[in-house]
Amino acid sequence: MFADDEEMWKSICKSKRRGDFFFQGTWKRATLFSRNQLKSNPPPPLLVDPLISIDLYEKWYRGNIPLDQWNQLPIQQVERRNNLSLEEFIKEYDSKMIPVIITDAMNSWKAKDWTKEYFLQKFGSFPFKTDEPDIIKRQKLFIKMQDYLEYFDNNNDEDPIYLFDDKLAERDEVKEILNDWAPPIYFQEDYFKALEEERPPYRWIVMGPKRSGSPFHTDPYRTSAWNGLIKGRKRWVLYPYNLIPPGVDVDFDEDGNFESDSPEPVKWFLENYPFIPEKYKPIECILEEGEIIFIPSGWWHLVINLTDTIAVTQNFCNQSNFDIVCAELNFDDEELYEDFQTRLTKIKTDISFPTNLVESGFRT
User: Fold this and answer.
1) Which residues of 62-75 are buried (b: 16+ CB within 10 A; e: fewer)?
2) What would the pLDDT profile of 329-342 be if each residue is shown by its tens digit?
């Protein structure tokens, strides 16, 4: 029984083949057979005496559970807006750190016509960065688009691999993708532009099958973020910066640094979500195709893909979150903060950096 455990074979496959594998329906087949040894039919089932394993059953269940039960919300708790002016956005949402969904901000994008078939035909032979660790290189795993999409369509992983690429601009063969979208007017003020080549990762193309997603996290340096959904449906679960979500463990060191550990989305929905007391219920919404969600500075968010999805996302620092981002940047990387001060002051001469750096919500 354990010889067919997909998590075990996934680990072996990553170690043996790294990003160069052809999925063939299971991690076991991807490990044992190269792309030149394609097997058209799965091996016959192995008959064994009955065995009860809660661990194996739970893994199987999380990888095969229908998502219908999470596909509807009784109340959409994040307001939807169209024809929203920049002034209204700043006054009603950005300055108050309130999430909002904007329904008409990507109409001019070429990216709105993206499909999996487009990426397969145009970029199939090129590797893309995923959220999966590469234990050899100690970085994230790169997988060719054609191999990723074959996996995308045929996996039953409880936590599927998520294509999450922030390195497009560094690779000539794929950087043209960046021409297909641009930040809407609401997010164009971005002080981190001053850092130029020293800027931390901030812009991603995101692609994942149903059940994939992101566990609870806050964005780097407490930047705000927006996520534009080009294909599919995403369910978002949100908590303000000062409320640690149920099921999330946060550990602090003596210097105030913290690390958080959260269950993957499917596991969290099964094991934590049903038992949340009423007064700790999250803010939730389902993001539909063609919509953009604004996530304010420091907010915790979990995302589960209810269907196959393609999206783009960016983080930014603007006037509304400037003080808190400065505090986090100074706390985490004093040298980068000093560089930020120097560069931004040259571009924006009237900028006033905080003299008494505010503490983040976790450090007050």
Assistant:
1) bbeeebeebeeeee
2) 998 899 999 999 99
